[in-house]
Amino acid sequence: MSDPNNPNISIRTTPQWALMQREMFWAPNDGVFQPFDTEPDKVKELAKHRLTEQGWLYSSCNAGINWTHYANRMAFYRHQIIPRMLVDTNVRDTATELFGHRLAAPIGFAPIGINRIYHPTGETSVAKVAHELNLAYSLSSAGSYSIEEVGAVNQDGCRFFQLYQSPDDEQALSMLERAHNAGFTACMLTTDTWQLGWRHHDVHMGNYAFYHSHGVGGIGLNDSVFLKRLKEANIDPEKEPERAGQKWMDENIWHGHAHTWEKTKWLIKEWKRISGGRPFLLKGIQSVADARRAVEIGCDGIVVSNHAGRQVDGAIASLDALEKIVDAVGDRIVVTYDSGIRTAADVFKALAIGAKFVFIGRLWVWGLSIAGEIGVRHVMKGLLAEFDILMNVAGYANLKDIDRDAIDSLPRTAIMPTDAQVT
Question: What InterPro entries does the database record attribute to this sequence (predicted)?
Fold first, then answer.
């Protein structure tokens, strides 16, 4: 177990996350039992049991027949950690810095929309836990609580506003201004979701919350430009919530209007003007050519992501894309990673390949679904403890030691065993 008097506790700048293991082993002696098992398959199974069918499908559906999702998991299997022995991990720390913010770990919350379908407290619980643990948080512009509410509960935390860019420029600028005024650290433009990918089960069920019970959510109905657009269309959101929700989504979020690099240059310029020069990232980058273009137009960072397999079926694994992109532009732009992360070993592998930071998605959504704020905290603290312990037992005292020499990679012809985890 982890000695509670270990000198490392006073040396490091972050909590001794590994102590959670000791606390959990001792807890039954005090009649204390944990909310749930944090093994990813168990978390997924319990979330499925707790959610409505619609909520479960929205959290779990992938594009097409799941090939991109499986490619993500296969890529993590192919890259394998090389443990090092007799390393002084008594001086280890998980702290990192991202765009000038000192954070407790290179692990953050990926942007996911309409959190209220998972738990009534939605984004507010997630943002609260992110602040408490000093982890980066991302709010989706398809969120179910307002930008202002989420910013307030996240307090002085490091937070990203993920933008689905409206083709209505006035509306897009309004969103950026609100994000800046609410203290968001950076703007993250998602580039792969002008419209949703074809997700068989969601489409079959008509499972699109904004057209139904959740309507326009807290972001649109707190936006002066959108309220003006509703008035122009003679839509009363209280009497016609479905029509208001339809207008919000069809015209501002998943609208089907593809933007271009030229339009992105404009957006960067406007965000820099509004925010006083705060960072701008592109999310959804998978090709080296696009990564180089992001550098050329002045992006501060990119998120290498295939939307966890939810957009393009049969696409390249995001981890394989990361390897090529880091080699091409890793010294010129902040490269972060998203897609398919389930364990601390997955985090380790993404960092080893060259990501400076890793965003987690479905794990915390399922935790939220199971037990709200308690569930999010339990999942994320478990992941942090697992990562801290992994650094200790694998012999890596510092994040900078986690590099390409820390992994051995099987050929792409390697096949993951049929009983391996593909959650």
Answer: Aldolase_TIM, Alpha-hydoxy_acid_DH_FMN, FMN-dep_DH, FMN_HAD
